[in-house]
UniProtKB/TrEMBL annotation:
Domain Polymerase nucleotidyl transferase: residue ranges: 29-67
Pfam families: NTP_transf_2 (PF01909)
Protein source organism: Paenibacillus allorhizoplanae
This protein's name: Polymerase nucleotidyl transferase domain-containing protein
Lineage top rank: taxon: Bacteria
Lineage start: Bacteria, Bacillati, Bacillota, Bacilli, Bacillales
Length: 68
């Protein structure tokens, strides 16, 4: 296992509603940042859950991703 394979997460509390458009932008920015940090080891970042299936609800939904 590579050192870069270990990803830590923490809870983040947001004080504003994030629209679906903004959530997609956040997911894209996240993908670019992860790709930059683990250069050459990332095959894909897949958005899953409500954002992926069109059921995203501002203020209720989170942004779920899978890194491959």
């Amino acid at each position: 296992m590579l050192k870069s394979d270990v990803v830590t997460t923490s809870k983040c509390y947001v004080t504003e509603l994030i629209s679906e458009k903004k959530a997609r932008q956040i997911a894209e920015e996240f993908s670019r940042e992860v790709a930059r940090k683990i250069d050459g080891h990332l095959k894909a970042v897949v958005v899953i859950g409500s954002l992926a299936d069109g059921n995203y609800k501002a203020g209720k939904s989170d942004i779920d991703t899978v890194l491959i």
